[in-house]
Amino acid sequence: MGVARTLEELARIGRQRTVNDRSVHLRHEEIATDLLLDTVSADQVSLERLSVDGALTVRSCHIDELVIDHVEADAILIVNARIGRLTVRNAAAGCEVTVTDSSLDFIALHSCGATRLERLRVEEVIQVNALRGLLRIANTRVAALTIRSQATGGRLGRPRVILRGVRAREDVTFDDLWLSAIDIDDVETRELSLRRVRLDEPLCANELRCSETMRVNGLVLPAENSTISNSSIRGPVELRNLELGEESGEGSAVARLGLHNTTVMSLSSSSESPSVVSLHGSSVTGTLGIPNGGSRYNLDSSSSVGDMELAGHVFRNRSQVSGFLNRTFTEVTGVTIESVRSALAKRNRNSEVDELYFLARQREASARPPIRRTVERVILGGVLGWGVRARNPARVLGLCVLVTGIVLHLAGALRDPGRGLTDVTAMGKSLVLALALWLNVGTGLPSELKTAEWSAIAVSLTAAGMLFTTLIVGMVIRKLVR
Fold it and tell me: What is the pLDDT of residues 272-296, one digit of tens each?
C-alpha cells in the first residue's frame, strides 16, 4: 500500500516531487497499489486522472480543498477528516464513494456511482449532480442539500436516493431527476422541494419534519400509493402537477399520494391529470385549499380539517352542496360535510351551516337499520327538519291544515242542510276551523262537533300543532339571534 503522511511524501508519488504553497497536484499518474493519505495537512490537494490499483483512502487529514477528478479506483474512502471544500467528479464505474465521520464546509459530487455519506457535519451545502448509482445520506447535519440533474438509467437501473437522520438548516431539494425511488426517514429541514421528479417506485417518507413548507411541482409517480407518514409540516404543503407514469396502470388509474398520521398547516393541490391526495389519521390545522384541475382529496373518518377555502362558492341547496363536494373530494362522507360546515361556521354563514348540518344528519341516518333509518329520515329529517330547516315543519303544518280542512268539509259537519260540496262559505269555515285547531288559537268547536270523538280529534290536532308551531318559532328565533 502506498502511504503518504506528509505533503512531501504525497508529492513524491507523482511527477511534482516538490510542494508549492502547501499544495499538491497529481495528474495522469498510475499507482500500482492502494493509496492512503494519512494525517496529511494541506491547503489544497488535487488528484486528477489518477489510476489507482485498489482503494483511494483519505484518513484523519486536514485539507482546505480536496479535488478528486476522473480517478480510477476500486473505491474512494474519506474518513475522520476535516476538509473545507470537497469535490469528487466523474468517479469510475463501479467505484463507491464513501465519506464518513468527517467535518466539511462544502461537498460537490458530480457523476458518481454508488455514494455513501454518513455521520457528517457540513457547514454549507451538499450538491449532488448527475447521479449514476445509489445515494445514501445518513446521520448528517448540513445547511442545505441539493440533488439535481437528469440521471439516466443504465444496465444497473436507475439510481435510488435514501435519506436517514438528515438535519438540514435550510432546504432539501430534488430537481430534474428520474430515480428508481426516494426513501426519506427521520429528516428535518426548513423546506422540502421536489421539482420535475419521476419515480419508478412509490415515494416513501417517514418522520419528515419541515419547519416552513413542502413544495412539489411536476412529480410523476407509479400506480401504487405513495406515502408520507408520521410527519409534521408546520407550513403550507403545495402540490402541483402530480402525474401518473405512462407505463403505470390502466387509463382510469390516478396518481395517489397519502398522508398518514401527519399534521400540516395548510394543503393545496392542483394538477391537469387526475390525482388524489388522501388523508389517513391526519390533520390540516389551517386551511385546506380547493383542488384545481383533476386533483381531488380523500378524507378518512379519523382525519380533520381546521378550515377550507370557500371563496366564490355558495351552499343554499342540495345540488350546490353536492356539486362542490364531488368536485373537491373523491367521495362524500360525514367528514367531508363536517369540514365544509365547520368552515362555513367560522365565516358566520349560518343558513348554509344549517343546510350542511341537515344533509349530514340525513346521511348519518342512511347508515341506520331499516326501521330506525325510516324514522330518522322521514320524521326527524323530512318532517321536523332536524331542528334547523324551518321550511320542512312549515310545509308539513300547512299540508296538515289543508288536509284537515278538506276532511272537515267532506264530513259535512259545518255545512248547512241543502248546501253541496261546492259551497264556498262552508269551505272557508272548514279551513278556518282546521287552522284554529292546528295553531291552537282556542276558538273551540262548533256545537255540531261537540262529541267525545270530535273532542279527541281536536285535542290531538292541537297537541300536534303546538309541537310544529313551537319548533318553527324556535328555529326562526334562532336564526334571528344569530
Answer: 989 999 999 999 999 999 999 889 9
E strand segments, 169-312: 171-179, 181-199, 204-221, 226-229, 232-244, 255-260, 263-280, 283-288, 292-299, 304-308
CB 122 within 8 A of CB 106: yes
Write the burial class of residue 54 (CB in 10 Å: 0-12 exposed, 13-18 middle, 19+ buried).
middle
394: phi then psi, degrees, rounded to nearest 5: -65, -40
The 3-state DSSP class for residue 122 equals strand
Question: pLDDT for 423-434, tens place per residue?
Answer: 777 788 788 888
- Give 408-453 as a DSSP string: HHHHTTTPPTT--TT-HHHHHHHHHHHHHHHTT------GGG-SHH
Question: What pTM does this model have?
Answer: 0.80
Q: Which residues does the chain have with pLDDT short of 50?
A: none
Q: Which residue has the cell 457540513?
A: 122
Query: Among candidates 75, 86, 164, 80, which has minimal Cα distance to 114?
Result: 75
Which residue, 322, 320, 308, is CA-closest to 279?
A: 308
Cell of residue 64, nine digits? 482546505
pLDDT value at residue 4: 82
For the record, the C-alpha cell of 149 comes out as 440533474
What is the sign of the dihedral through the CA atoms of 309, 313, 319 and 323?
Answer: negative
> Which residues have a Cβ under 8 Å from the Cβ of 470 and sit 6 or more positions away?
none
Are 132 and 109 in contact by the 8 Å Cβ rule? The answer is no
Q: Please calculate the CA angle 135-71-17 and round it to the nearest 5 degrees.
A: 140
| Separation CA 427–CA 161 (nearest Å) | 85
In percent, how much of the chain has pLDDT > 70? Answer: 91
Q: What is the pLDDT of residue 476?
A: 84
Instruction: Please tell me the predicted confidence (pLDDT) of residue 155.
Output: 54
CA distances from 353 to 321, 357, 362, 473 (A): 11, 6, 14, 19
